Amino acid sequence: MAKIDIGINEKDRKAISNGLSKLLADTYTLYLTTHNFHWNVTGPMFNTLHIMFMTQYTELWNAVDPIAERIRALDSMAPGSYKQFQNLTSLPDAPSSPPKAIEMIKILVKGHETVAKTARSIFAIASKADDQPTADLLTQRLDIHEKTAWMLRSMLEK
Prior knowledge:
- The chain is mainly α.
- It has one domain (19-155): Ferritin, core subunit, four-helix bundle (Ferritin, Up-down Bundle), CATH 1.20.1260.10.
- The protein is 75% helix and 0% strand.
- Helix 1 (10-40) packs antiparallel against helix 4.
- It starts with 9 loop residues before the first helix and ends with a helix.
């Protein structure tokens, strides 16, 4: 394979790829937790949450590919195993026994806030390296995670 020459030095590409690998792991872990909650939610908010969680896990599922492909475009290998994701993620695994609906919402709020923090942590190095595609991807992810956390938090008000 030909040597990469896209105007971002190797050190910065590696740092950005490492950060994006954590973002990928966080996104995949949150996807899996959200899908789990979609399957297992019960109670009076069942229909609302079942549909909302489906919308959210679908969005997360569609997010993993662009993150992984950006890692590859930076000439690094994207993580893709549960073991790699477990070692890279900032999020806990989904509870082994499904919690009550309100606890599910709280877990997902924290998850989206955590993923937003992970995305934000990569922004400085991407900006410094003039990596506009990564900065754009991070901006999109931040917008989605912050809005989703806000919408979920709104459901917790009494």
